[in-house]
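Example pasted here:
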Amino acid sequence: MTGPDWLAAFAELPGRVSREDIAMIPHGGDDQTRSSAVLILLGDSPAGPDILITQRASTLRSHPGQPSFPGGAIDPSDISASGAAVREAVEETGVEASGIVVLGELPTLWLPPSNFHVTPVLAWWSKPSPVTAMNSDEVERVERISLAELAAPSNRYRIQLATGFITPAFVAAGLTIWGFTAGVIDRLLYLTGREIPWERDRMLSRP
């Protein structure tokens, strides 16, 4: 695979990192837990490496209005978590699948609020294509956000949920990213050496 030099640090994560390296909470689930996948699509831009983020529709029952990676439930017709993640990204953003190179899958994580087992799929956007919110009933916005903007200490916070659990948070591109998505981004910045020291006592109210 060819790509920019910065991509190598991400490409080596699948198969190297453990669930404990990226999970915010212990793994769990029950016989009602469903399987899903999200696409962590890394691209290159004049601002440097970036990542594709969607904002879920405010009318959805699950995580309304929350910024997230493209993704969704794994269907019986999907041959893998990677296949499901790419399919969902195409359906949500219109990204062309032919321009996506899957780097590998990270350990599956448990998302208690919706009781999903979520597999993050790392991918390289080798041939960027136009993206937009394809279905307003599911997605309100689609943004490419640079890793530099996410890593900037001035854009980093934490949010305490009603349960008392504290999650990382980022304010970038006019979005407040928190919860599962922010937790994964936080770990990726750390694991690839892109984290910049920041004031961890900076708190935000949940959007």
